[in-house]
Write a structure and sequence with these properties.
Elements (H helix, E strand, L loop, with lengths): L32 H14 L6 H28 L3 H42 L2 H9 L2 E8 L4 E6 L7 E11 L2 E8 L29 E10 L8 E5 L4 E4 L3 H17 L4 H12 L7 H9 L10 H18 L3 H19 L3 H18 L6 H15 L7 H25 L4 H24 L2 E3 L2 H8 L2 H15 L4 H26 L5 E3 L3 H20 L3 H32 L6 E3 L8 E5 L2 E5 L5 H10 L5 E6 L4 H4 L9 E6 L5 H12 L3 E4 L5 E4 L2 E7 L16 E5 L4 E4 L5 H9 L8 E3 L10 H7 L3 E4 L12 H10 L2 E4 H4 L2 E5 L9 E5 L5
Parallel strand pairs: 4-6, 12-13, 13-14, 14-15, 19-20, 20-21, 21-22
Antiparallel strand pairs: 1-3, 1-5, 2-3, 3-4, 5-6, 5-7, 8-9, 10-11, 10-23, 11-12, 16-17, 17-18, 18-19, 23-24
Membrane topology: Multi-pass membrane protein
Keywords: Cell membrane, Membrane, Transmembrane, Transmembrane helix
Pfam families: Competence, Lactamase_B
């Protein structure tokens, strides 16, 4: 249910007014649902194929006019029918048209408005001057308005200790054009080079830049694809300089948010990390490991500010006004003012915008004295938002927020009634809310991660009740910070309790065996998920028994078939291969792509030359998210498959970029949600119980020459297995690495440069590995692996496993633990 709701809807409106709870009748007003879906489809496709928009808009207005003319014609025809028998015949013949034609007209009109908004947006997003600057790769002085709190991380530079400087990325506006900025941080200090859970945690707001600040910087532009939320990528050559402070109307929010995050970081453990996310949606302090477990247990929606948070704010003001006996319009005005301040505080992310607009619609309906219905309010909110910004149709956060609300409004009550027939009603009501939201969101979730979280509903049952408490208490702490800092600090410990509970539930749930069911990837997996969700709902909710039986049969057979397709090959391989492999060398041709596993956490060293073989290896091994990725250097045979990592990798350690193309590659990974860090010797971190350490390159990064000899060398040491990955280091660089005295004995070595002759026998003798893994393509033109390398490994007592003859190679520790234990090696084919 990532990105969804936490129960309830903005303004506290569920479809109670039209649910008929307790009467056995349920009427859902879905008349606007086709209109909202048509607008969403038009926006999603239109922003991706802008050349077709003028034709589409004209056709839609033509359909609208035709439908309206047809409605008028039908009405006139019915009124002019003379005799009663003729009147009855006409009425019977036109009843369908009267019902359908207005809906068609509304769908076409709404879609035409969205298409027109997209056309206007395209003109605004592509000013000729910026397009020309991007085409010519000119570096110019730009004035930007910060639209997102900058995220800071480690990067290559040369001005700081060990050649490390802080780099930032943030969304901004350039003369009204949305852009994504990558630049050196204004702060001169670099964050520490030690990381846990495979990543560097964000540093909150150390740059001092706030949303609304006006900054200037010299930068180069790169145009994005039409459907991207940002029209241009901005690559700064200098750090941004603040030219103007943010307006006071929004500056207060950045200061308050920063103070709250700083206070929460003083709280112990993961409860302190999670609290700002639960209260104000700031996840900058959440470690990569906790973030991965929140996603794996379907709890990440708790840190996505949306309907539940807005409902709490509005409900609190409305209740206070009712207790004080103030007039209705005063309560509504107070609620809307508080809601506006809350949106500024948490920043207007897509899910927040959806929830806030829906809350405004509900409040206006309440002010007019009309009963508010949840689904129509949601549909109006979606249509209005897409007309305002059609690019939100492609936002996963917006989609998940809207779908979760649909699930709560449409599915929660009937599911609760059905479940109450099989279990105690309180338990049924507790289960129906997370179940409804997960069913509605699952088709989109499998696009993000091809798996179904089987622990999602139980985890939400355990963690869900604690979320409102953490939210309310966290907001109280925010309000008290400027007024009574000491009292705010005391209250923060009360807010920490439910936050720590949620973190503990996430950790426990994600580590349970069978927590994830592998699923088909891509659009096919989403389509199958939609079909099986419909079948499941028929099995649970259909009025007729034969429909329930048919739905249950389709659902059971479908889930078994999909699970077999997605997980079946893995089950078969699981019978043949080591049950708990630790290292997997993918058969991706002439290149490197090697996985490491520690329980449910995965690291990948390089990607190979192409995306498809890497995707096949990851899917075949059941690997979804990657906690850590190491890109040793930027040769094509090591980074050619990098697009497979977009949206999949938590943290990326990279070698020194060689050119602008390499820097843009890393920027795209950042834009897809990865934290990118330029690696240097001394960095360390953890992958579960496995510790990793960067051994090479050494020295200031601005003096490191890119290429094979600058390959990132990483050592992994777990309780059962140790390994080192040498990238493409040549003999002289290997000798220099040996001279650093940081090299230890290991169980497994990933042989450098696919087994070339340019190797240091002294280094391999010092490593003393029991196994050397050679990632190499069959019948390659380089003669890899060379006889010199194979003879060298034989002399130092290192056995060989190679992907060219053996295909996929899996390595696991034997009965003995640590470096003294025996190794088990499994491969798809017998060694030649």
């Amino acid at each position: 249910m990532a990105g969804g709701e936490r129960g309830g809807t903005p303004g506290g409106t569920e479809d109670g007014a039209n649910s008929g709870a307790g009467t056995g009748r349920r009427v859902t007003d879905a008349r606007l649902l086709p209109v909202a879906l048509a607008c969403w489809l038009t926006a999603g496709i239109g922003v991706d194929v802008p050349d077709a928009l003028p034709i589409v808009r004209g056709a839609l207005w033509a359909v609208t006019l035709s439908a309206l003319v047809a409605v008028v014609a039908v009405v006139v025809l019915r009124r002019r029918a003379g005799r009663p028998r003729a009147r009855s015949a006409v009425r019977s013949a036109t009843v369908g048209a009267v019902a359908v034609l207005p809906v068609v007209a509304l769908c076409a009109a709404g879609s035409a408005l969205v298409a027109g908004a997209a056309l206007a947006g395209l003109e605004r997003r592509q000013p000729p001057a910026l397009v020309e600057q991007a085409r010519e790769h000119r570096v110019e002085l730009l004035a930007l308005t910060v639209a997102q709190t900058p995220v800071e991380q480690l990067g290559a530079g040369g001005g700081g200790e060990d050649g490390l400087v802080s780099r930032i990325r943030f969304r901004a506006e350039l003369d009204g054009v949305p852009v994504l900025v990558f630049a050196s941080a204004p702060s001169a200090s670099a964050p520490a080079a030690s990381m846990s859970a495979g990543s560097a945690s964000d540093a909150g707001e150390p740059t001092g830049l706030r949303i609304g600040d006006r900054v200037v910087m010299r930068a180069e532009l790169e145009a994005t694809e039409p459907g991207d939320s940002a029209a241009f990528l901005v690559f700064g050559t200098d750090p941004p300089e603040r030219a103007q402070e943010a307006p006071a109307a929004i500056a207060w929010a950045g200061d308050l948010r920063a103070r709250f995050v700083a206070l929460a970081q003083k709280l112990p453990g993961e409860g302190g990390e999670l609290l700002p996310g639960l209260a104000v949606g700031d996840t900058s302090a959440v470690s990569a490991g906790l973030d991965a477990d929140m996603k794996a247990s379907s709890l990440s929606h708790l840190t996505a500010v949306s309907g539940a948070n807005c409902a709490i704010v509005v409900a609190a003001i409305m209740l206070l006004g009712r207790v004080l006996g103030v007039a209705r319009w005063v309560r509504v005005a107070g609620s809307l003012s508080a809601l506006a301040a809350f949106v500024v505080l948490v920043t207007p992310e897509p899910s927040v915008v959806r929830a806030a607009v829906m809350a405004v619609i509900v409040m206006l309906a309440f002010l007019s004295g009309r009963a508010s219905r949840g689904l129509p309010a949601l549909c109006v909110a979606v249509i209005a938002i897409l007309v305002w910004d059609p690019w939100l149709a492609r936002s996963y956060g917006f989609a998940l927020s809207a779908l979760a609300t649909v699930g709560l409004l449409v599915l929660a009550a009937p599911l609760g009634e059905r479940l109450a027939a099989w279990m105690p009603r309180p338990l049924a009501l507790a289960i129906c809310v997370p179940l409804a939201a997960q069913l509605a969101c699952q088709p989109v979730l499998v696009l993000l991660d091809p798996a179904i979280a089987l622990v999602g509903v139980p985890a939400n049952l355990l963690a869900g009740p604690a979320a409102p408490a953490a939210t309310v208490l966290g907001l109280v702490v925010c309000l008290l910070l400027p007024l009574a800092p000491l009292l705010a600090e005391w209250c923060s410990y009360l807010a920490w309790l439910p936050s720590a509970w949620i973190a503990a539930v996430a950790r426990l749930s994600a580590d349970l065996p069978g927590a994830r069911l592998p699923w088909l990837a891509g659009a096919a997996g989403a389509a199958v998920c939609v079909a099986l969700t419909i079948a499941l709902l028929l099995a649970l909710l259909a009025a007729r028994r034969r429909w329930r039986r048919a739905g249950a049969m389709v659902c059971g057979v479908g889930f078994a078939a999909v699970a077999g397709l997605a997980a079946g090959p893995g089950v078969v391989r699981g019978i043949l291969r080591p049950a708990e492999w630790s290292i997997a060398a993918c058969d991706i041709g002439q290149g490197d792509a090697v996985l490491l596993r520690d329980g449910a956490r995965f690291a990948l060293v390089d990607t190979g030359p192409e995306t498809e073989p890497l995707d096949g290896c990851l899917d075949g091994l059941g690997v979804g998210r990657l906690d850590l990725v190491v890109l040793t250097h930027f040769d094509l045979d090591h980074v050619g498959g990098v697009t497979a990592l977009e949206g999949r990798a938590e943290t990326v350690l990279s070698g020194v970029p060689e050119n602008d193309a390499d820097r843009r590659m890393l920027a795209r990974l950042e834009a897809a949600g990865s934290t990118v860090v330029t690696a240097s010797a001394g960095m360390s971190g953890s992958l579960g119980e496995t510790r990793w350490r960067v051994l090479w390159p050494r020295g200031p990064l601005d003096r490191v020459e890119a290429g094979n000899d600058a390959s990132v060398v990483v050592e992994f040491v777990s309780p059962v297995l140790s390994s080192v990955f040498l990238g493409d280091l040549g003999e002289s660089a290997q000798d220099a690495l040996l001279a650093t005295r940081t090299v230890s004995r290991v169980d497994v070595v990933k042989v450098s440069h696919h087994g070339s002759a340019d190797q240091s026998e002294a280094l391999y003798e010092r490593l003393g590995a029991a196994l050397g893994v050679i990632s190499v393509g069959a019948d390659n033109d380089y003669g890899h692996p060379t006889d010199r390398l194979l003879d060298l490994l034989a002399r130092v007592g290192t056995a060989v496993a190679r992907t060219d003859g053996q295909g996929l190679v899996l390595v696991s520790a034997g009965s003995g633990a640590g470096s003294s234990g025996e190794l088990q090696v499994w491969s798809e084919r017998a060694p030649p």
